[in-house]
Amino acid sequence: GGENQAYGKGQHIERISPEQVEARIEGLQTMGKQLHAAGVRWITPYICAMTVNGDPDRRSGFWDFYDHWQEYEGLGLSPRPEADPFKWLQLTRNGEPRIYYGYKYPDEFYPPFGDNHRFAACWQTTGWQSWLSSVIRFVARCDFDGVFVDNGTSQRCECPRCLDAFRRFLAERYPKAESERLFGCSPERIGFPSKNQTLLQSEQTRFWCATLRTQMADMKRTGSAALGREFIIFPNGGRPAYIQRGLANTDFVMFEKSHGEYGTHPGTVMVPIVDGICARACNDNIFEYKFVQSLRNRVRPVILSRAGYPQRQPWLVLNHNAARLGIAECGAFSGGGGFLLRPRFDLYHDALNEGRRFFEEHAELFAGLDSYAQTAVLAWPEQGWLGNPAHMGEVKKLTKALVEQHILFDFVPETRFSQPMLQRYQTVIVPRVHAISSERLRTLEEYARSGWRLFIIGDFAGQNERLEQRDMTASAWGELLDKPEGTISIWQAGSVRRCHDVQAAAVALAQQHCALAAPARIPL
After folding, report:
1. Alpha-helix runs per DSSP H in 106-187
2. Mean pLDDT across the stretch 94-123?
């Protein structure tokens, strides 16, 4: 029934008997067979990666179930964990429950849950692992094909268990001497970072992503073993860096686009200013689609656009033309993703069936193919972890500018950065990359010297990957970077061009790419 406002009260959260559970499973099995027989490929019901609903003092909600756990073990439920569910919760470093949902705990209750709290559970606890694994097995028992996992990037616990795991994580990444130099102590003595410890904060975020990666992999493994075939994992988690490091091996990831300056539906929007006067604006999902595609991993992007949710504004309602555009945009840019539409034929006309027919009848346009482009943009979302949030803002600006100039381009994220990948492209754009390792700096130098073009926007490479300052004047880059904006420097067989901003780079690039010739087929 959903995790927040759908069915969070009254009879919808009452505990039912084991006999009622068994009858409900039989009903779900029948429904699953009927859906599969009707042509549904994947059934992925909703679960949540962390939500625990109830009150530990009144023993309501999940605590009521925990107190009667043994009654359900005959259905195949795992043995009851010894620790009370209150011991499973994510904590702040002060030892208090981490509340994600904007209400004052413990003085208030989570409004959509009436007189219950909404807690967040920690994956590092055996109790939550055991429970969520049981949920996955029961989903498979219903012959469903996987799960949609809400709060897919919300493992950000600072409990003692997570601190121990964090220290082990750091010990694998930093030798003792380097840890003492950078953090002031050895890994086994490190605490969770304060706000001014940027490098350690970035490592904490990497650790949280590693936790997500383990959680998603465990759920997939458990579900596949129970189902006897591959089990689909479909998290809600549209955060590029988290997708890259935590969710890249899932099957789909959803961008829940509820809020935007001009709504979130693709296409032209007429924004009311005052009575009788509107402004024209445009929305698209090209960045989201292309970034996930650029990972060249298992995961595929899915867009849910629901402008203004939970409120509804008439001028933001998705119409049938925007629905068709959303499907077409997905086909053009996502590499096998999806654009979510409810089967509302009164609103979207036949857009769903039209889209399905096109993809079924033109599979040769997509199957086994990779994207083609002559230009690459370094899109490194982990720059934000390293104190450089401006980088991804520039990447998004570049996305719009290159589309407007009709320049075919790909993103190259951190995990796909290599010399063979760069050499697929005639031009590589580097937008405000502040922190970069010496090895990657040498890769860019080799790329430029080998006969290709580098466009560098703004400040570049002033720090290494450990955020230590780098003197670029003493390197081969020094003379190139010291030249005025707009200067083109010849570097052996290639060139480096300094650009003041995104628009200047896009215009200069468009002048060099007046004609494009794409090969008939680029295999993966």
Report:
1. 126-141, 160-173, 176-183
2. 92
